[in-house]
Design goal:
The longest helix is centred in the C-terminal third of the chain and has 77 residues. This protein is mainly alpha-helical. Helix content is 73%, strand content 3%. Strands 1-2 form a two-stranded antiparallel sheet. The chain has a domain of 68 residues. It contains six helices and two strands; from the N terminus they run ααααββαα. Keywords: Coiled coil. InterPro entries: Myb_dom, RsfA-like, SANT/Myb. This is RsfA family transcriptional regulator.
Length: 216
């Protein structure tokens, strides 16, 4: 089978994708990227654009989104650099070397300007610090929730323990009262003989029988 003369090779698709992504990151237009690829491959910009939109673009959707994010970060860094440079020129100065200063020149010159790499590095460091701070905040929130759950659980167990202790106290008091009743029953039985019954004892202990029992 014959190969079409205008067929794209894998290497050409890679070059097209890398160039377009680079231009997106740098804030340049895709048309300029198509023209650059066309110049290198001796194709028209229209052919490069058609190939990108028809075949190559859909295979690099994630990379395109990442390139757009990098473009925003680059734009933000440039704006920040311009702002810092303006402030540095306004308030920061350094003395001129007396041995190299020309006669009649100003005794002060603006400080060395910040480079784009320095701004990007600074912003990346800020981003890492922000990510670490956010991770620490999330961990702190998780520990707070866990502490709240443990406090609630501890409160529940404390209340359950208090109920069990109260129940144990009641059982202990009932047991001691029963022991006293049984001891009293034995004592009265020995004194009253067979005429004394446990019912009479209970009436005596509860105060329902107010008068003393007659002795035989």
């Amino acid at each position: 089978m014959k190969t079409r003369q205008d067929a794209w090779s894998h290497e050409e698709d890679v070059l097209l994708a890398e160039t377009v992504l680079q231009y997106i990151r740098e804030g340049k237009t895709q048309l300029a990227a198509f023209e650059e690829v066309g110049r290198q491959l001796r194709r028209t910009a229209a052919a490069c654009g058609f190939r990108w939109n028809a075949e190559v673009r859909k295979r690099h959707l994630a990379a395109i989104e990442q390139a757009k994010k990098q473009r925003k970060e680059r734009k933000r860094a440039l704006e920040m650099m311009k702002k810092w440079q303006k402030e540095a020129n306004a308030v920061t100065f350094r003395p001129l070397d007396e041995n190299k200063g020309a006669e009649g020149s100003s005794p002060f010159l603006p400080a060395a300007p910040l480079t784009l790499d320095q701004c990007i590095s600074f912003l990346q460091a800020l981003r890492r610090d922000a990510e670490q701070l956010e991770a620490a905040h999330q961990e702190n929130e998780r520990l707070k929730r866990e502490r709240t759950e443990w406090l609630a659980r501890n409160e529940q167990l404390t209340q359950k323990l208090e109920r069990l202790e109260a129940r144990q106290t009641t059982v202990q008091e009932d047991y001691e009262a029963l022991v006293k009743i049984m001891a009293r029953a034995r004592q009265l039985a020995s004194e009253e003989g067979e005429r004394f019954s446990l019912a009479q004892l209970l009436l005596t202990e509860t105060g329902e029988q107010s008068e003393p029992m007659a002795h035989s």
